[in-house]
Design brief:
The complex is a heterodimer of chains A (about 400) and B (about 280). Chain A is built from 13 helices and two strands, in the order H-H-H-H-H-H-H-H-H-H-E-E-H-H-H. Chain A has about 400 residues and is an all-alpha fold. Chain A has a two-stranded antiparallel sheet with strand order 1-2. In chain A, helix 2 crosses helix 12. Chain A is globular, with a radius of gyration of 21 Å. Chain A starts with 9 loop residues before the first helix and ends with a helix. Chain B is an alpha+beta fold and about 280 residues long. Helix content of chain B is about 25%, strand content about 10%. Chain B contains ten helices and nine strands. The chains are: A mainly alpha (about 400), B alpha+beta (about 280). Chains A and B meet through helix 5 and helix 6 of A and helix 4, helix 6, helix 7 and strand 6 of B.
Chain lengths: ~400, ~280
């Protein structure tokens, strides 16, 4: 099936070349970082994780979001998702590839990465994260490939594959739960020390992941003559809507706990993220615009998704559907892909404040990894759509 | 005093040696030398789960440190001397940029060190004296729990939370896990920033985490930790076995009221402050 990636319209090759050049820039930036050390980034003694880990956290969610297609289709036999379930599985592969690259980019001694396996420490959440991420990657490659091959041959998938399909569902939940546990089990980091982090991660994942699939479907409809169908889109809209509302509900609960209990430690980070934190006469607030953009995007997206604008038949609905999905995806990226990780380090354990601003080199690597993910995603979708067209 | 110190040094040296492979020195257990200065009777009713008054009966050597702030108040240069001694003993680089700093022991104001203590109507000492901050060598260290490669670990022979710089992958999970901000990361090659190279202690490479090691390498030679030595004769820093009821540190803790940092987190720090 790989041969399907080798044939395409000029636009396909231009798109790949564009991504390829971003990947090359990212690689060049990474060489610089590899030689000099992580001092090439904006991270510091106080904010010791930056863009890499925050992107990793967000993308684990995107990967887990694929399960919102797998679960209805395989467990509830929701046939409408038949054509797009493979898109969810392949999105998960691309997202996990990005996650692993971001982890590697973040290591101070990347050549020692295998120490996690050579000297495992079963008490560390990172050890389990390694297991579930690689497990989920393997499961999605296996299930996606076997089922797509069967579809191409127009036979039923072998029965044994369903064991792995069903296994991938708890794995999807586990990758984001374990990722949340990286944060919520740390004493002394009040913003992260909350039992609601894992469910909140899952809620935002189940909104952001399917939003990206909607966006992908809209693009594929235009460029690849692939229509997922209005009913499937509408069902996705319903899923995103509920997940997004639940996520915002959880965010609201964090505010209640912090501000009603009035415990300073529980309020500091929220204050820093949304209003600016005053310290020795200086107000630190460089994340405030991002967090309010998150709030506006999230509620704007929810309002659009709930309005008849995106569900009605006819012209124009695709546009509004695309806007709504983009708002949800971007909004939740601002929250989990930026604010959640950076904010957790403010204030530091000695109640000092250091703000984090990524460097150009760091942005280059980050964009390079995203481009790699979209490169992988493009190839995988090319294969999936190619098989669909072949069968038709 | 001197006799006692010799005894302690022998003990500490032996325990440190045990940590690096010599036959283990079995240390008597001490049930009442619990790492708290508070008398048992006073806190008898406090729930153990709260974690800040009672600890399980310890066994073996547990090294700890007491900072006597009265001595630091008397001589403001004392702390600076202790920091310098540590920096030169451990090849700690000097970076101007706050973001790149490597710190093993450093100074901070009371409200930064004791973030859950009130400074409302605090006294002169608290307001004006810089407090020493270092790794607490917790009995239940969150950094050790977080490390995915066992590059940081607790030495069972003496309670020191140590680092293996050659195993550390630089994921910085331990830095996020430490509630005391005790850990530093080498954001770049530190060697050009070391002023006077001490060839008896290894320098680190870029991309690994480091922190105070209670001078394990000096204890192995029968020497005191560098900061203790720098404050000799002032009683500002007292070091020893918390589990030995006859040690200088235990006697001091029995006599004085001390506080510890963020005890409500259940990490059981081994560093005490007399304020």
């Amino acid at each position: 099936m790989i041969e399907k990636t080798l044939k395409g319209k000029p636009a396909y090759w231009i798109w790949l070349a564009f991504l390829g050049s971003l990947m090359a820039i990212g690689a060049a930036c990474y060489v610089r970082q590899f030689n000099f050390g992580l001092g090439m980034t904006g991270m510091s003694r106080d904010v010791s994780w930056g863009l890499y880990i925050s992107q990793f956290t967000f993308l684990v969610g995107v990967a887990a979001g694929g399960v919102m297609l797998v679960l209805p289709y395989y467990i509830h036999d929701y046939k409408v998702f038949g054509r797009i379930t493979i898109l969810g599985e392949f999105l998960a592969i691309a997202a996990i590839v990005m996650c692993l690259l971001f982890i590697m980019a973040d290591l101070g001694q990347p050549m020692r990465a295998l120490n996690v396996i050579l000297h495992p420490q079963p008490g560390s959440m990172l050890f389990y994260d390694m297991i579930v991420l690689n497990g989920y990657l393997f499961l999605n490659i296996l299930c996606g490939w076997v089922i797509l091959t069967a579809e191409r041959k127009q036979v039923k998938p072998p029965k044994w594959i369903y064991f792995f399909v069903y296994l991938s569902i708890p794995f999807a939940v586990s990758i984001h739960t374990v990722t949340a546990m990286l944060y919520c089990g740390l004493p002394g980091r009040h913003f992260w020390l909350s039992a609601i982090i894992a469910p909140r991660f899952l809620a935002s994942a189940f909104a952001a992941g399917p939003s990206l699939i909607i966006l992908a479907c809209l693009v594929l409809k235009r460029v690849a003559n692939f229509d997922a169908g209005r009913e499937a889109m509408n069902k996705l809209v319903t899923i995103i809507l509920y997940a997004a509302i639940i996520n915002m509900f959880f965010v609201g609960l964090e505010f209640f706990v912090g501000y009603y209990s009035n415990i300073p430690g529980h309020k500091h980070t929220l204050e820093y993220l949304f209003f600016g934190l005053e310290h020795h006469g200086h107000v630190y607030n460089n994340l405030v615009p991002f967090m309010w953009a998150f709030v506006i995007f999230a509620f704007g997206g929810i309002a659009l998704l709930a309005s008849p604008l995106v569900r009605k038949k006819g012209e124009g609905n695709d546009f509004w559907l695309g806007v709504a999905a983009a708002l949800i995806f971007l909004g939740f990226w601002l929250d989990k892909g930026l604010g959640f990780v950076f904010g957790g380090f403010v204030p530091n354990p000695l109640h000092e404040i250091t703000e984090y601003i990524p460097t150009a080199n760091e942005l280059g690597i980050t964009i390079g990894v995203w481009a790699t993910g979209f490169f992988v995603l493009t190839l995988l979708y090319k294969i999936a759509i190619g098989v669909e067209h072949e069968v038709e | 005093m001197d006799k006692q110190r010799r005894k302690f040094l022998k003990l500490a040296g032996a325990s440190a040696l045990a940590g690096i492979g010599a036959p283990a020195v079995v240390k008597l257990t001490a049930s009442n030398a619990v790492a708290s200065s508070a008398p048992d009777a006073g806190h008898g009713a406090a729930p153990a789960a709260h974690g800040d008054s009672h600890e399980a009966a310890p066994s073996g050597v547990r090294l700890g440190m007491v900072f006597d702030m009265r001595a630091f108040e008397k001589d403001p240069k004392l702390l600076e001397g202790a920091i310098t001694a540590c920096n030169s003993a451990h090849n700690i680089p000097h970076f101007e940029d706050r973001k790149r700093e490597i710190k093993w022991i450093w100074k901070a104001p009371f409200e930064g060190v004791f973030t859950d203590h009130s400074v409302y109507h605090s006294g002169k000492l608290v307001k004006e004296t810089a407090f020493p901050v270092t790794c607490n060598h917790c009995d239940d260290p969150p950094c050790v729990r977080a490390c995915p490669t066992q590059a940081t670990f607790k030495l069972e022979t003496n309670g020191i939370v140590a680092m293996d710089y050659h195993r550390c992958i630089g994921c910085r999970f331990c830095m996020a896990a430490c509630p005391y901000g005790a850990r530093s990361f080498n954001w770049q090659d530190p060697r050009p920033y070391i002023k006077n190279y001490n060839s008896s202690f290894p320098s680190r490479m870029k991309g690994v985490v480091e922190k105070c090691n209670f001078c394990g390498e000096r204890l192995a030679l029968g020497q005191e930790p560098a900061c203790v030595e720098a404050c000799k004769g002032t009683g500002a820093v007292v070091f020893g076995d918390l589990n030995d009821p006859k040690s200088e540190i235990s006697k001091l803790l029995d006599k004085e009221f001390t506080i510890q940092r963020k005890t409500n987190l259940g990490t059981k720090p081994s560093v005490f402050y007399i304020v």
